[in-house]
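Do me a favour: review this protein, sequence plus structure tokens, and tell me how the chain folds. Record follows.
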Amino acid sequence: MKALLTFCAVVLLALWLADCTAPKPAASAAASDPDAAGRAKIIESLKRDIAGKENWPADSLYENVKVLKTLSAERFLGVMDRWGQALGVGCDHCHVKNEWASEVKPEKAVTRQMIELTTRINKDLKSIGGIEEASVSCYTCHRGEATPRRQAK
């Protein structure tokens, strides 16, 4: 029964997102991502801080990493940037600037839950016969916006 409900949820999600397209090319992405320059500046600063330790696990260099602990610190920063791009937000959407470990903003907890959701959906998609190499990401729903909008028909 649980598998059937999961299947139905995935099918409904797929129908709702029927107009899934790839992210826009980089040239137009900058216009639709006004926070890109701010994120880049912060990430470059953080990369300078971890110089020589880029391949260390993220949780060994950053406090309060709960989900992506084993990613390299450099890859961790890249993931943060891609999430910001997928939602069209700056680092301060989830974080208090320069207090990255802070749990003050509820968006940080929501992000962790969304990571778990996309992981579960992608795992379930692999178990459905006939769907080859399908996956979802933040961009699947958000498309550069902090709050996802339903697709117009």
User: Anything to note?
Assistant: The chain has one domain: 33-142.
